[in-house]
Amino acid sequence: MSLSAAVKAKNSTLISLMRLSSFSSATSSTVSLKPSGRLQQTLAASVEVNGKALHSGKLSTVKLLPAIAGAGRYFEFRSRSIPASIEFAQESPLCTTLLKDGLRIRTVEHLLSALEAKGVDNCRIQIESESPDDREVEVPICDGSAKEWVDAIEEAGINVAQNHGGENVEKMVAHVNKPVYVCKNDSFVAVFPDLETRITCGIDFPQVPAIGCQWFSWKPEHDSSFARDIAPSRTFCVYEEVERMREAGLVKGGSLDNAIVCSAEHGWMNPPLRFDNEACRHKILDLIGDLSLVARGGNGGFPVAHIVAFKASGSCTAH
Predict the structure, then answer these.
(1) What CA–CA distance (Å, rounded) separates 295 from 84?
(2) Which among 19, 67, 115, 159 could disulfide-bond with 124, CB atoms 3.0 to 4.6 Å apart, if both were Cys?
(3) Other CB atoms closer than 10 Å to residue 292's CB: what's the count?
(4) Lowest mean pLDDT among 69-78, 180-189, 269-278, 310-319
(5) What is the DSSP letter of 174?
(6) How many whole angstroms separate alpha carbon 147 and alpha carbon 100?
(7) C-alpha distances out from residue 3 to 9, 55, 94, 118, 237, Å
(8) CA proximity to 39, closest of 115, 125, 120
């Protein structure tokens, strides 16, 4: 997450594109759902992660559990089910939020990114806040990356999922048939037909020379690609903007332990970086999490396409 000078809606450009292009539709002029040649998967066992939330600063607990084929990924909060779906995505400051029946799940993108990239197509996600009366809860920020979520998934293990009838179900994926894009000012997201999945991301912070303009392109070549290339990249922020964010009621749980912080004048304040372009890689982490929201019924959220994004969270990104 990069913290910006203005508190605006996070990833409105990307969410608009996903709704426009109907990635999750079975048939449309833009996309077609086709067999992936792989079976839907779920966790082999349950696993629990506890930690502090980035924005509220409160403690929360997440338990990941196996789910049947066709169930998809969904949260359980206050005895209600909230699907991790674009239908329930709400534009919110500096994070991706799910809203249903007055209940909010905030900062879901790092967890969903890990589940999508690791191939956990079906997952029951129980989440609890420290206060029994809260109507919203936030996923723990961990160290600001998706590494702890990947470690938890690998600890639990992955199995082929079965439906209620005990049958395996083939995973379908969206193939993009024609280019589609959305833009706002100088930010854009474009999706092009391709034979494989690839994400190319650009960011630009001219006021912060240590970050500057960065581009990075990534494709999931094998099972360990995400864990090696993307998951370790951490949330980043501009030091001079932190106080403004806190005055707006955000990043109350932010610290040097869960974000890399860059000063416009002095550069990175808590080196070393895990990658020279860690900030840009983290934007890909966020994009994967948001793309996961188009998955339905245990099918893939990652389209077979080349996704190109530049400043895709607008001027207010928080990842």
Answers:
(1) 8
(2) 67
(3) 27
(4) 310-319
(5) E
(6) 28
(7) 12, 11, 7, 27, 5
(8) 120
